[in-house]
């Protein structure tokens, strides 16, 4: 009989999480106590976060997130109020990007720097400071490399593609999650999602998702993979509300995390 072997470590809030394998069975431990077990490592790790998250004082689960969203948008994703407040301007930005810098052409062509800069400026998803710093990238000698790398990451997200983006953006202090996830989110919202770190970490904590502990500001592909898993899990939990794409899921995360209780408006 083999001794227990630790497969993975992590934290969720103040709790220490550990995934242990023994004789083909996986055990999820929180602060040294077994919470879940099973024969699939990823499933046990996910369920460990689900269970551990419930002890966080900010936790309200996916049902609580849904209730919070519906408090502000009682008619859900397919309503005039939601479209006006959250969706329409992002769809307009996508259409502008698709027209001025099509994805395939951007991956292989040149001269799209100004069009991409305009796309970044067309929403409020990035801060004014981030947009200002991007001018140096998109009006400088690395503009074509950045646009091509961003398009290639959109088409085939990978660790190497993300590394290329990081290398190009670091000299201008633009190697940020907001910068690298914005274009994929607009080019292919059916596949990608925009990452606003603080509000997304808060949301992940509230629903008990591993992203809350996996996140790091550095451009680590494991973070992006976890973000996509968070998107997929949220989409599954909201299936009856019929979210259309990553625009709806990103908006949902933003609403749950940023809209405050004192906000009086209800958007129908």
UniProtKB/TrEMBL annotation:
Highest rank taxon of the organism: Bacteria
Protein name as catalogued: Uncharacterized protein
